[in-house]
């Protein structure tokens, strides 16, 4: 019903406005007493074979919602009812920021893809922490953290430490985002020297805690093999929990959408089906080259159960969806869980 009736109507309107409209509808519906249980019965699939322990955390299933959908941790309880095994909030920055100018979210329907240049629009780490303190569900939550746009790279560590401190008591794991293409200069932090220093300092603060939290690194799909080799070395040297592969891409290769339309949209990170193959390649490279030395969470172009299975076979311990959730609807997580349980 979603693909036949609902999405054709929603896709007539601006993508970002539709996002907030859908979130508001879901939020209001959740206040009706019987709606949460109905949603869980329709969209949740439970099977003992789906339960996994990764980085010391117990996931009820290996299908998560990627960062970007619930930037301010306002929808965790509602999204839990849609069958996810974990939710990643953010990207969160220390201070609130409006993000880039609108419009900044675009659909490439013929490619089943999205281009976004949101620019870490969020209400700040303190607001996200407050929202998470109010949640009722026990689903695992990851905190995806970044720096403010006006913070120079030389001072980026301070921003990540602020987010780490604000969110530590209310998230189950952290994700260090240095791979978004929509904050000027951010990807420069992926270079070996700055990234090693950043992660090492975060880990020092983490180890001061009575119960440290797993820290993952989210990387771009546009890295070369030698840069991926650096990532493997960095994970081993700093002792972080693992890698999330991958973020959005700046590539516009092999799109079905007319070039003129793509050019008109302009800059931004591309997600969805065009990223499927490359993200799986990166996962396979990291897992093979490191000899599965650390867990990899696979994300990028998962629009079907088969896409998720392919990433699992490439070595991903867990998977996340975002654009596929938009195009395929809320039943995608359940279909993936069923496929994984059957393999």
TrEMBL record:
Catalytic residues as annotated in Swiss-Prot or TrEMBL: 180
Primary location class: membrane
Pathway membership: Pyrimidine metabolism; UMP biosynthesis via de novo pathway; orotate from (S)-dihydroorotate (quinone route): step 1/1
Residue ranges of every copy of the Dihydroorotate dehydrogenase catalytic domain listed in the record: 50-340
Membrane topology summary: Peripheral membrane protein
Coiled-coil residue spans: none
Any single GO BP term: 'de novo' pyrimidine nucleobase biosynthetic process
Residues holding substrate: 71, 116-120, 177, 182, 247-248
Family per similarity comment: Belongs to the dihydroorotate dehydrogenase family. Type 2 subfamily.
Subunit-level organization: Monomer.
Name recorded for this polypeptide: Dihydroorotate dehydrogenase (quinone)
Naturally occurring in which organism (per UniProt): Dyadobacter helix
Classification lineage: Bacteria, Pseudomonadati, Bacteroidota, Cytophagia, Cytophagales
Gene: pyrD
């Amino acid at each position: 019903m979603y693909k036949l009736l609902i999405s054709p109507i929603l896709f007539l309107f601006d993508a970002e406005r539709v996002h907030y409209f859908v979130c508001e509808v879901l939020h209001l519906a959740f206040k009706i007493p019987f709606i949460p249980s109905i949603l869980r019965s329709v969209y949740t699939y439970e099977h003992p074979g789906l339960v996994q322990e990764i980085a010391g955390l117990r996931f009820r299933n290996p299908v998560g919602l990627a960062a970007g959908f619930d930037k301010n941790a306002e929808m965790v309880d509602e999204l839990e009812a849609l069958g996810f095994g974990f939710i990643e909030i953010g990207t969160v920055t220390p201070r609130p920021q409006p993000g880039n100018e609108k419009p900044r979210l675009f659909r490439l329907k013929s490619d089943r893809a999205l281009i976004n240049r949101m620019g870490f629009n969020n209400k700040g780490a303190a607001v996200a922490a407050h929202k998470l303190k109010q949640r009722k569900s026990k689903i695992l939550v990851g905190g995806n953290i970044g720096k403010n746009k006006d913070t120079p790279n030389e001072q980026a560590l301070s921003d990540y430490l602020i987010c780490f401190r604000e969110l530590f008591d209310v998230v189950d794991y952290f994700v260090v985002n240095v791979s978004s293409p929509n904050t000027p200069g951010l990807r420069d932090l992926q270079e070996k020297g700055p990234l090693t220093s950043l992660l090492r300092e975060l880990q020092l603060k983490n180890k001061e805690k009575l119960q440290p939290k797993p820290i993952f690194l989210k990387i771009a799909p546009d890295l070369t093999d030698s840069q991926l080799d650096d990532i493997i070395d960095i994970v081993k040297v700093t002792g972080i929990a693992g890698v999330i592969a991958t973020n959005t891409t700046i590539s516009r290769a092999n799109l079905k959408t007319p070039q003129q339309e793509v050019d008109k949209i302009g800059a931004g990170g591309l997600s969805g089906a065009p990223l499927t193959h490359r993200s799986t390649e990166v996962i396979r490279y990291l897992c093979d080259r490191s000899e599965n030395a650390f867990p990899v969470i696979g994300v990028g172009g998962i629009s079907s159960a088969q896409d998720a299975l392919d990433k699992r076979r490439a070595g991903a311990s867990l998977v996340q969806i975002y654009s596929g959730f938009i195009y395929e609807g809320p039943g995608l997580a359940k279909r993936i869980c069923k496929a994984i349980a059957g393999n």
